[in-house]
Every structure is written in C-alpha cells, then in structure tokens.
Design goal:
The chain is mostly helical and about 200 residues long. The chain has one domain. Helix content is about 75%, strand content about 0%. Helix 1 runs antiparallel to helix 2. About 40% of the residues are buried.
Length: about 200
Amino acid sequence: MALQLAVGPVCIFVFLAGAAQGFYEAMSGVLGAALVDALEIALAITGVGLIVRRGGAAGAKLRIFGALVLLLFGASYILDAVGFSILPDFALFSAASADGTFIKALLLTLSNPLTLVFWVGVFSVKVSREGYGGASRCLFGLGCVLATLLFLSLAALAGGLAKEMITPCQLRLLNAAAGLLMFYFAYRSFRGGEGG
C-alpha cells in the first residue's frame, strides 16, 4: 500500500472524475488505471520491462511521449475550466461509461513509461534482495494491483463526496489547478524524474 502513496496524474484524474461526475463514473477510471497497472506488473514479473529500464534512445522517446500526453491532459483540464474541450469523449470506444472515463484513465496511465520502470525496479529488488520466486512474485504483484484498486477507489470516493460540496465555479478552479499539476508532471517527465 505504501507504493501507492505518491499522488500523481492518475490519482488527480480519478479524484476530478469523482468530483465532476460522481463515484461510480470515477470507478470506471479506477478500473482503467488498474488494468494498465496489472499489465505493467505482469511485464515486470516476466522481465520484459528490463528493456525499458535500460533507457537509451528508446527510454528518452518514451519519456517525451509520456510528457506530451501529460501536457495534453493538462491543457485539457485548463481549457475545460473555461468551457472548451480539446479531448474527445471516446464514447464510441468505451463500454465502461458514457464519456470515456475508463479510456481516458487507461491512456493517462499508459502515457507514463516511468510506471513500468518503477514496477521493474520494485520487482528487481524483491527478486534480488528478498529472493522472491515465481509464486511470491505473482502474489506480490496481485497485492500491488489490489493496492492500486484500493488507493484509487479512495480517491474516487473522496471526489464523489466532494461532488456534493463543490460548486461549478470551484470545480473549474480545481480543473485549472489540476492542469497546472499535469504540466509539472510533464516537466518532470521531460527532465527524467518520476511523473506519476
């Protein structure tokens, strides 16, 4: 659970989805993020993620791509605050919700290649220092996915509870602040630091 305590762009996205559309809508975003985490954890367990960890030109390109996606989401939040939308709603592609919260959370989580690097690092430590074998790695991976579900569900719940107290003006200000945070995460990604 301690691995989930860093609040990043996905957590902010889930909270805002809860504040704008309610708990159940935000939960579709939680499921999208957890699906990507499960995939990346599976890749880390199998060792495929070691290629990403090596970095080089491929790692730099992935970092830049992730930063650009974060900039797009940041700009979207800021423009949404003034009533203009630049991201499509993905309604045709999403069975999870009418406005595509599931797909947006999926894309936002996928946009951060540092998450895969993080999971590869975590599992490298578990294997090299603690001697985790196949079954132990799988159980630990399952625990990590469940922690993602729990932590983001709490963010969705907090957003859903805030929905009842936040005025539309306050929600626009919250969106603008979240947009600025996305810009910060994008800057960190460009610089090579953790972005989410």
